[in-house]
User: Fold this.
Amino acid sequence: MGAMREKHVKLEGTGVYDIAIIGGGAAGMAAAIGIGLGAKNRGLNSSAASGRQGSRVAPGERLRVAIFEKNSEPGKKILATGNGRCNLTNTRCDGFEDVRAFFLELGLLMREGGDGRLYPMSGQATSVRGALWECLTRMGTETRLEDEVLSVRATERTEIPFEINAKSGMHAAKRVIICAGGKAGPQHGSTGDSYAFARAMGHSVISPLPALVPMTCADAERPRLAALKGVRVKCLASLFSGGAKLGQSAGELQFTEYGLSGICILDLSRLLRGAEKNSLRVCLDFAPRLSESELKTVIGKNLPAGLDGILPAKLAALVAQEGRDSADALAGLIKNLTFVVSGTKGWKEAQVTAGGVPLDEIRASTMRSKLIPGLYFAGEALNYDGVCGGYNLNWAWLSGMKAGRAAFFDE
Ligand SMILES: Cc1cc2nc3c(=O)[nH]c(=O)nc-3n(C[C@H](O)[C@H](O)[C@H](O)COP(=O)(O)OP(=O)(O)OC[C@H]3O[C@@H](n4cnc5c(N)ncnc54)[C@H](O)[C@@H]3O)c2cc1C
Assistant:
């Protein structure tokens, strides 16, 4: 990071840009590289891209690209992803081959970590950000750190239509890519500014909700949670609102003092939009491959110690206490331990945002706005959210690359 800061002069003064990227996170960095790759594919020098076929830059002219990033470093959130290991894509994602090729071009190799999840070969998120950063530096992209964008406006001017009001002053751009993220993880920089920019230019915004976020439980659950705090266990979790089952997810569950966490709970949290808050519950099945009667037979042979061969000790103790000595009740609890849910932990603990600029207001092949010529969106600013496993970063890279390339060719 020392080297990064050296290369990063805090830029003062205003600029006129061919392409301005708002937000230097995963999508913004991929967009800037997409511009460079677009230039390279046309046989142009990406750091001083003289315009030829397609790009609207005059021959011999340098393409001026800037990333406006409010943090003092780009890609801060990338470092927090995958518990510092960065689960950067998944072999099951749409467009995964393109993402892999993109990173290969940057010299980053990947290795699989189960269920198609891909991580950098180094096992460190810093390698991912480093590879992106190296490439941007090579390409000569102007990265305006600590330069928060306050507003973006599309004017009537035809040549340089966009006005960007940033902390450093007023800037102008021919094309703008909005990559300022959603509202999840505000401590990493994304506080929902994409939505204000989009609305100001006539786009609608589907109300943002925290997703991939732990769930909180009703106060009445506190004693049970206190007994289970810290327990991690594999299960099949089902989410209900009143009598309606909203969905189910299998994977690791983690009990906390306030509620439920772990991958299966994070995935279920994506389904909470529109759910009746006061009738939510999560039902946990700790033996999804066994029927209740099979379980009863196993437990009944060795009561109450039979539970210890099935569940972690603290969970076995709670189930034993609630099921007393009845094999029927114990098997029922193992198949269906229910917790009343009160809500979610909120933006600070959310990994992604559900909601954002509707995808039908954007052309899918170019990420270009259908409303404003020259305006593009990428990443979490848009109404896309995926399950855990690399789907969200895959979207950020892919949509960023597409937007960058399309902005370069003015598609
Ligand atoms: C703890 C955590 C772990 C995660 N782990 C994974 C994982 O392993 N795999 C996975 O696929 N996904 C993961 N995600 C989700 C993934 O990180 C996001 O979906 C992805 O980073 C979104 O990329 P983005 O570029 O759209 O937004 P962001 O990464 O949020 O970047 C937006 C950038 O815009 C900047 N910005 C915001 N407003 C302004 C402004 N007004 N002016 C200038 N700059 C601005 C921000 O500072 C930020 O740098 C995780 C998220 C979190 C929080």
